[in-house]
């Protein structure tokens, strides 16, 4: 519903409170310690007592022996919820499942296992040899008991199919181990140590096949004389792991597990397995095993007991491993076979929990377009490609949704943690599905003349443009956290996910695009900033160009160019022949502002005609919506520009002048510096320093007593309760937002659900000061000629604790027609606008196309006590129902009819609307013009790189690929 700047700030503070340097120091020390993070061996008795190693628990009591942890390791858990322990037996079931913290402890256990495997034991480097620290049989028994406890309760398992399957690969319970991870980590260690082995290591990491065993054996034979005894031992271990990993599926092993199930599931799974034998081709094996995976996925919640569920999950994991291996051996020779492989691997992605079943139902007909056909058009092939690419993105998004919070926390003190998510994705069918989609994309690009020209990227077909534009500048590839990055307007950034508070930049490429209508995407679209989505593998490929000067362009059809400065054509160089490209800068219409209005206004006293006069467009348009749709808009009041301007006439603390004199003097000096030929950076530095002083002074100013009296009165009049008894939102609303040529979406501060009177008073001053934040200044100075005449008003409204909320743009963005709707929703309040991985749809009068499902694991709710609560969700059901979408259609139809008539506006373009649903009731929160950068979309250069495509061209499906 609203910008989350205050919450992002709060989470940044929490991250800073983590003693990162202390933890780094501890990790370093543990690696050298002969006991690692362990303290000493003790007996842990069943009656809760703890005894020394030489004093066993009495037989009549019973107990187990294992290591205790050092006190500073235990303190990390108690104080910061960081758990380095790799011992399961020391945990209580419920604490380890850690539901209230999004299963953090279980996920940390998995991550620690990964670090151990990939960093020579990590903090257990020497401690792993501490005799008696861990008893494998006790760990196995604990794991089995844990899963029986966990799977007994359907509440635990609801929506957690993917996490449960993943955890079973890491938590011992029946002698299983994560051989795929072990194989990658062992090859990685050897590759880092022996440069000539690196190519094979990359092959094993990125495209593993059974034939790799022979390749490694050949390598060892060829280089045997030059290998040390330690290296020979390491290669023997790797080969042993690979042979164990690539052992053929033992169907008797699977049948042994399926026979543990109660009927009808036992009979059905055994029936599905009857067609399997070792003589089948890889493709045929997948065709037999896939339906077993899907049967388990579809019937998992209905299984009778915890034993049935555990057996079913073990069956699923064993079969998934076999399907993964066989998919590498399935090498399509023609287009039909490639489409069939992509179709089937997408089916397996749904069957293994990488995408949800309802998501697969929405796309399976598109993926199956090739069936019973001899030809497909370019348009149809592009539709299949786009859908298949989505399956890969959604699958990667599922992994990130489950683990990114833990990875981001650990990465602050252990950079190796970043590899965990990549490892999980590469362990899944998403790896070969992505490879297959890349091959298909390259083939279709060749047939339709759509070609991405991207330096050093092995699979450019997986890159797609989001909004057009071109830029020249330094390429900055951010492989890790985006925290504390000092963004520059002259640089092009490649990162996993755009920060919500992104400052102006030259260009953007993201692995996780968030959604099409987030504030960052809308600002980028508005300013003509080129923006594209790419894969994690693409990002990894581009890392070697970090720091290089590059040219970057995205056409209106979405093809992407990224080349080094030396590769630029003369036409491309001309685009940047001046120091700065000319921009369509605009002037804030100061003559319309009525600063003599110094009384608070009820929303019912304001309408759209007051936008830019008394208040900003948020308040004016929402007030207009209140009169048009009174049952769908909350009550509220407006603090107009005039009240802020009146306060600027007060004496500024520490200065011999008023706030207004300080502000105007600042901009006058900037003009003088410009005339004196000072550099742009010098002028900018002076301005930001001065306005930072002004911002601090505004936050600390005393509000006028008459204004505070008005504030108290308007609370009673609007909300029938005194100030301090109803939590409200304080929404910044300036006169520079939502002009015809510019949207200021999300640039200034909004405060969530503020309750106490003093906090409301402090909040008003913070909102007034927010237009002078560096990010807000940089964005608007890129577009405005007179940025000093920016005045904030404030819209004060109560929060609605909606079930889900988001943005509706009344046109198709990047797809669809001008009358279609682009809809993005997330659960809770603040949905979609802040870059979340939202449920995004393209909706027409009768159709509803799913562009992407939500992958946002948490959401915010509004307690009556003020502030926000964070809750967690799963993805097994869509957010929006058909009833909700029909409500949206009906509302948009009414807005299109009523808005121009009732406002007298000549605006005929699309709208950007924020709304939410509470118990299926639609609430409107904002409406503004949807602004696109006309210069970018009409650029002659961008037209020249946009291919002309014959979408009706037919392609034979027996064509070689």
UniProtKB/TrEMBL annotation:
Domain of life: Bacteria
Species this chain originates from: Pseudotamlana haliotis
GO biological process, any: gluconeogenesis
Catalytic activity: pyruvate + ATP + H2O = phosphoenolpyruvate + AMP + phosphate + 2 H(+)
Gene3D superfamilies linked: ATP-grasp fold, A domain, ATP-grasp fold, B domain
Function: Catalyzes the phosphorylation of pyruvate to phosphoenolpyruvate.
Official protein name in the record: Phosphoenolpyruvate synthase
Domain Pyruvate phosphate dikinase AMP/ATP-binding: 614-940
Requisite cofactors: Mg(2+)
Lineage: Bacteria, Pseudomonadati, Bacteroidota, Flavobacteriia, Flavobacteriales
Family classification: Belongs to the PEP-utilizing enzyme family.
UniProt entry tagged with the keyword Transmembrane: no
Keyword Metal-binding: yes
Pathway(s) the chain acts in: Carbohydrate biosynthesis; gluconeogenesis
GO molecular function annotation: ATP binding; metal ion binding; pyruvate, water dikinase activity
Protein EC: 2.7.9.2
UniProtKB keywords: ATP-binding, Kinase, Magnesium, Metal-binding, Nucleotide-binding, Pyruvate, Transferase
């Amino acid at each position: 519903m609203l910008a989350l700047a205050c919450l992002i700030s709060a989470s940044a503070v929490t991250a800073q409170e983590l003693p990162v340097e202390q933890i780094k120091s501890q990790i370093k020390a543990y690696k050298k310690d002969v006991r690692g993070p362990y303290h000493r061996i003790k007996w842990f008795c069943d009656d809760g007592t703890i005894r020394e190693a030489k004093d066993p628990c009495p037989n009549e009591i019973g107990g187990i022996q294992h290591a205790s942890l050092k006190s500073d390791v235990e303190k990390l858990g108690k104080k910061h919820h960081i758990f380095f322990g790799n011992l399961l037996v020391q945990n209580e079931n419920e604490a380890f499942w850690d539901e209230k913290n999004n299963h953090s402890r279980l996920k940390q256990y998995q991550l620690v296992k990964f670090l151990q495997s990939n960093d020579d034991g990590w903090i257990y480097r020497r401690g792993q040899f501490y005799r008696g620290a861990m008893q494998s049989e006790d760990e196995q028994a604990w794991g089995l008991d844990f899963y029986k406890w966990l799977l007994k309760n359907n509440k635990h398992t609801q929506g957690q199919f993917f996490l449960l399957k993943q955890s079973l690969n890491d938590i011992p319970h029946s002698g299983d181990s994560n051989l795929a991870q072990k194989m990658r980590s062992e090859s990685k260690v050897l590759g880092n140590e022996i440069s000539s082995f690196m190519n094979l290591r990359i092959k094993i990491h990125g495209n593993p096949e059974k034939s790799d065993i022979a390749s490694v054996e050949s390598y060892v034979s060829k280089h045997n004389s030059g290998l040390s005894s330690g290296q020979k031992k390491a290669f023997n271990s790797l080969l042993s792991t690979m042979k164990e990993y690539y052992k053929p599926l033992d169907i008797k092993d699977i049948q042994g597990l399926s026979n543990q199930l109660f009927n009808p599931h036992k009979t059905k799974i055994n029936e599905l397995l009857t067609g399997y034998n070792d003589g089948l081709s890889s493709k045929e094996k997948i065709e037999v095993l896939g339906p077993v995976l899907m049967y388990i996925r579809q019937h998992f919640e209905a299984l009778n007991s915890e034993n049935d569920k555990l057996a079913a999950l073990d069956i699923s994991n064993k079969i998934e491993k076999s399907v993964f291996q066989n998919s590498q051996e399935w090498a399509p020779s023609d287009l039909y076979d490639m489409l069939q492989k992509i179709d089937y691997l997408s089916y397996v992605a749904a069957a293994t929990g990488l995408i949800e079943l309802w998501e697969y139902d929405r796309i399976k007909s598109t993926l199956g377009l090739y069936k019973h056909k001899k030809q497909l058009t370019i348009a149809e092939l592009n539709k299949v490609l786009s859908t298949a690419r989505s399956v890969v993105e959604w699958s990667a998004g599922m992994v990130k949704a489950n683990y990114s919070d833990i990875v981001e926390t650990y990465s602050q003190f252990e950079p190796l943690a970043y590899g965990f998510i990549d490892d999980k994705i590469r362990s899944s069918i998403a790896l070969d599905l992505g490879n297959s989609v890349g091959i298909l994309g390259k083939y279709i690009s060749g047939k339709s003349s759509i070609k991405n020209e991207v330096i050093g990227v092995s699979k450019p077909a997986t890159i797609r443009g989001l909004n057009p534009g071109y830029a020249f500048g330094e390429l900055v590839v951010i492989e890790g956290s985006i925290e504390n990055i000092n963004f520059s307007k002259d640089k092009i950034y490649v990162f996993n996910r755009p920060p919500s508070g992104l400052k102006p930049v030259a260009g953007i490429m993201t692995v996780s695009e968030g959604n099409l209508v987030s504030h960052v995407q809308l600002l980028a679209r508005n300013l003509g900033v080129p923006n594209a989505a790419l894969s994690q593998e693409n990002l990894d490929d581009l890392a070697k160009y970090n720091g290089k000067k590059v040219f970057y362009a995205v056409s209106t059809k979405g093809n992407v160019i990224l080349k080094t400065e030396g590769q630029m054509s003369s036409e491309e160089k001309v685009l940047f022949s001046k120091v700065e490209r000319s921009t369509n800068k605009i002037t804030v219409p100061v003559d319309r502002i009525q600063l003599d209005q110094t009384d608070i206004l009820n929303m019912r006293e304001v309408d759209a005609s007051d936008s830019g006069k008394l208040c900003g467009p948020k308040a004016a348009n929402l007030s207009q919506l209140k009169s048009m749709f009174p049952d769908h808009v909350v009550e509220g009041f407006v603090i107009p520009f005039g009240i802020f301007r009146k306060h600027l006439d007060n004496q500024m603390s520490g200065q011999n002048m008023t706030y207004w004199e300080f502000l105007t003097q600042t901009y006058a000096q900037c003009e003088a510096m410009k005339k004196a030929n000072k550099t742009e950076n010098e002028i900018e530095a002076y301005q930001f320093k001065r306005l930072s002083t002004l911002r601090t002074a505004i936050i600390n100013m005393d509000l006028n007593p008459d204004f505070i009296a008005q504030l108290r009165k308007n609370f009673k009049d609007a909300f029938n309760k005194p100030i301090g008894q109803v939590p409200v939102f304080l929404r910044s609303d300036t006169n520079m937002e939502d002009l015809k040529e510019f949207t200021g979406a999300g640039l200034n501060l909004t405060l969530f659900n503020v309750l106490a009177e003093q906090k409301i008073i402090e909040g008003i001053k913070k909102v007034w000061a927010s237009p002078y934040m560096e990010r807000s200044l940089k964005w608007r100075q890129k577009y405005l000629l007179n940025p000093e005449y920016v005045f904030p008003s404030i819209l004060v409204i109560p929060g609605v604790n909606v079930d889900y909320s988001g943005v509706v743009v009344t046109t198709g963005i990047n797809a669809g027609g001008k009358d279609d709707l682009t809809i993005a929703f997330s659960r809770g309040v603040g949905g979609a606008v802040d870059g979340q991985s939202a449920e995004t749809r393209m909706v027409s009068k009768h159709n509803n196309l799913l562009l992407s499902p939500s992958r946002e694991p948490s959401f915010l709710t509004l307690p009556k006590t003020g502030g926000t609560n964070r809750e967690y969700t799963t993805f097994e059901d869509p957010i929006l129902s058909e009833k909700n979408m029909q409500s949206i259609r009906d509302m948009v139809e009414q807005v299109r009819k009523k808005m121009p008539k009732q406002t007298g506006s000549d605006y005929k373009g699309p709208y950007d609307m924020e709304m939410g649903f509470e118990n299926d009731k639609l609430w409107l929160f904002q409406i503004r013009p949807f602004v696109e950068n006309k210069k970018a979309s009409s650029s002659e250069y961008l037209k020249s790189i946009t291919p002309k495509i014959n979408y009706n061209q037919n392609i034979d499906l027996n064509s070689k690929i």
